Amino acid sequence: MSDGPAARLQKLFEGHRLTPTQRRIAHCMVRGAAEVPFLSSVELAELAGVSQPSVTRFAVALGFDGYPALRRHLREVAPAEPPRAAREESYNEYQQAVEGEIENLRRLATMLADPSPVEEAGRLLAGSSPLPVLGLRAASSQARGFAYFAAKVHPDVRLLDEGGSMLADRIDAVAAAGGSALLCFALPRHPREVVEALEHARGAGLKTVTVADSAFAPVARYSDLLIPAPVGTGLAFDTACAPMLLGRVLLEAMADALPDAQARLESFDARAAARGLFVD
Q1: C or N: which end of the chain has fewer Cβ atoms within 10 Å?
Q2: What is the pLDDT of residues 227-269, one digit of tens each?
């Protein structure tokens, strides 16, 4: 599978130390990869919510003479097609939101053409017992869903979906019990407590595996392995189909790395049948 526009942009930004403002521009460009080569610096600045000079400085930080040179480069490496907005102008806002999520899933599929990051994450998670799963606020449902299914195949999964002063204590308890890795779901808006929890986990000796909306998210510098999955922004509240699916992919990779996963599943099914847990 060939790289799409978003993947090519991601590679362009890799290896550069970007300021928070520049990461914001980069994130905006990745999310709108098909449209960016057609935008002026003023339009990109408005889209990213930054100043026009910030866009110029961003282009220079990437090694270009200015934004026009960056845009020429993008047009050379990206397929020449009209912006998606022009192709979808007949859609209503709900359809546009769905189409946006479909595009996010396509980007995730492109990223998974190289399965090595997910396989590495699966091995790290399988090798950690206990296995803490962190997700606060908007990401709590992602963490809870992963933890629910992971407990069917992993011997000791600990859900961390509440902040507060005891969060650090619970991370310390995982490390003291022999845990070696932590899985984090981090979605916008990024709570300060998540950043602090990741920093604390690394200080306690845990490897941090993070599912985030972007490789430029604030949690990136505190993550040993970050796998991005974009969120949808077409509605009043963000949609997270891609992060949810990536969580299930990580669950599959972890199960593949657990030698007794199938036996645990069969044991659970037998107990569920004996207790009549499900009506189907």
Answers
A1: C
A2: 999 998 888 888 999 999 999 999 999 999 999 999 998 999 9
Residue given tokens 């130390």 in the structure block: 17
Q: How many residues does the chain have?
A: 280
Chain centroid, CA 252 distance in Å: 17
Is-contact 135 267, C-beta < 8 A?
no
**Phi and psi (nearest 5°) for 141?**
-70, -35
DSSP 207-257: EEEEEES-TTSTTGGG-SEEEE---B-SSSS-B-HHHHHHHHHHHHHHHHH
**How many alpha carbons fall within 13 Å on the CB side of residue 149?**
15
Q: What is the DSSP letter of 184?
A: E
Closest CA to 48 of 71, 13, 17, 24: 24
Q: State residue 88's pLDDT score.
A: 55
Which one, of 186, 178, 174, 171, lies nearest residue 246 by Cα?
A: 186
Burial state string for 32-51 with b = 16 or more CB within 10 A and e = fewer than 16: bbbbbbbbebeebbebbebe
- Kindly tell me if the per-residue pLDDT of 41 is higher than 80: yes
How far separated are the first and last CA of the chain, in Å rounded? 39
> How confident is the model over 88-116, as pLDDT tens digits?
567 888 888 899 899 999 989 999 999 99
Determine whether 266 is exposed, middle or buried from the number of CB atoms within 10 Å of its CB (0-12, 13-18, 19+).
Answer: exposed
Pairing status of strand 225-228 against strand 207-212: parallel
CATH number of 116-272: 3.40.50.10490
Q: Which residues contact 210 (CB under 8 A, 6 or more apart)?
A: 183, 184, 185, 186, 198, 219, 220, 222, 223, 225, 226, 227
Class of domain 5-86: mainly alpha
